[in-house]
Amino acid sequence: MGRYLIRRLLGAIPLVLGIATIIFFVLSLAPGDPVSIYTAPNVSSEVLEQMRQNMGLDQPVHVRYVRWMGSMIQGDFGVSFARNQPVREIVQQILPNTLILSLSAITLAFLTGILIGVFQAVRQNSLIDNSLSVVALFFYSMPSFWLALMLILIFSLTARNVWDWPFYFPASGMTSVGHEFMSPLEQVGDRLRHLALPSISLALVLAAGIARYMRGSLLEVIRQDYVRTARAKGLPERTVIFKHALRNALIPVVTLLGLYLPFLFSGTVFIETVFAWPGMGKLVVDAIGQRDYPVVMAGAFIFAVMVIIGNLVADLLYSVIDPRIRYE
Amino acid sequence: MSLLQVDNLRTWFETDSGTARAVDGISFALRKGETLGIVGESGCGKTVTSLSIMGLVPDPPGRIVEGSSVRLNGRELVGMSAGDLRRLRGNEMAMIFQEPMTSLNPVYTVGNQIGEALRLHRGLDRAEARRVGVELLREVGISDPEQRFDEHPHQLSGGMRQRVMIAMALSCEPELLIADEPTTALDVTIQAQILELLADAQSARGMAMLLITHDLGVVAEVCDRMLVMYAGQVVEAGTVRQVFGEPRHPYTRGLLDSLPGRAAGARRLRPIEGTVPSATEWPEGCRFRDRCPHAWERCAESPPPLLVVDGEASGRSSRCWLEEEPERRVAPRPSPTGSAPQRPGRPR
Questions:
Q1: Which residue in A224, A232, A322 is closest to B89 by CB distance?
Q2: Domains of chain A, each with CATH number or no CATH
């Protein structure tokens, strides 16, 4: 297992470098440059040219590539053009926010998706199963940013202004005004309240897909001989489903973990923007608008690394669930 | 009193092409310690019979029709609450399946799966279940039982997996063991060992066994009495000695003639023409008549009941009008379809 892990991590290095290279060249092909945002009637073209030189943008592409790659390998992502702050510092500050959001979204998505899928499979073709399938298809087809707006409309605006709920979900940010004056317990509650809508809007789309997958997978497993063996032993239906069938049915569902991570991260780009969540997605979107290349490249690079790690975790989970899979 | 008493058991399945009457009115009794064999071709209802007794018929699409009765130690199992039935399953009655390769859960250890029934029905704790489980593995002839207990099914061969299935079925000392084609999926050399193991376990525990198979050799070796099933019904019943010595029903005779080395005059095998009809459309009258060399008008007009042979005391019966018109037995007309191709250059 340890050796397998090391081999996988070593194998990821060329992959990561390749991804970084592609990101770099694609971005250098894009029109516009960071200096253009400083363009103004009172700024002379010499000043702009001087700024280009300061940023190193006057150099040909291959020189910039070698410089960037050289420093990136040492963990230096350069300095943000727009914020004039090392990218590394910005990322260190902001990456945890995105991790909190995406981890809670994916946990929520798998928990609800699996539970709903199991429930549907056990009641196959009943009214409730069919209704849930329609609901799942609805959420599966809706873009998460639209869901986010609807959630804000309902649970933030209408809940507070029309229904007069004493308790509503905030529409933006990670914390309320005056967060630092709250007791520790209140602080946790405040953060969870802010986390609710963004993570739910991210999770709904994923949960809908997971539920559909889980239902199909469990229906397949329920027909297996070993499930009949479990029933022949006189085990209660609860044990038959949750012990004998579920673990086998989860094996294909784990694949979704790896497959859904890219969706999850591109989802955070929209969701963080809609909810003004100070995370990597919002950072990258803002940076693209400002042609802040170092930040965009660092962001894309970090998302790529997280997808690779997520797939590695999915592969390791296989061996946890299925003893026939052993990594040597 | 019989341990197991099945009366007019009918198990039907709703399918797209109509109601499949997979088991259609079978009755038999099984005494304590006795071994009863049920034989017949694929699709004649043997497995559905055993699943019906265990209460494992998938519903829907299957259902046990009203008027059916299955009694174990006098208690009616048909219509019993799911919870009560569950307490009997794996406890007083246990079952071994045909496919050892797929009948064990791949993600749990052998020991975990053996211990389950013990913990559930006997209330043993983990350590006690382990001790009993290892002992069971030793009894069914698995070497290094201590070590095997913690292995997963994919680490065992087919024969060993079937031994594990047997250990699992024996764990709560059932009074009735149902073995559904327990050796069909195994190598010939392993088959004999498994049969011997089943026979030993049965005599050691005095349990009754219902052995379902299409292999007449297995029945001859292990069983006391046998039922021959065709098209969801019992067509012949008797002791193994009686049925093998003097088969009464044309279907039974056909089965025996299909055995290598048994065909009269040791000539070529004589297979039964045709195949089992579909369970959604059993033929009118006698269900075997389309394939029967003796069939005459009466067989089409009315279905024969299970007729007593050699008087009540013999316990023999046959579902054939020949029992009432024995003179017709002598000269069977040629194969009803007349389709048996005469291969050139191969004189019969």
A1: A232
A2: 90-321 (1.10.3720.10)
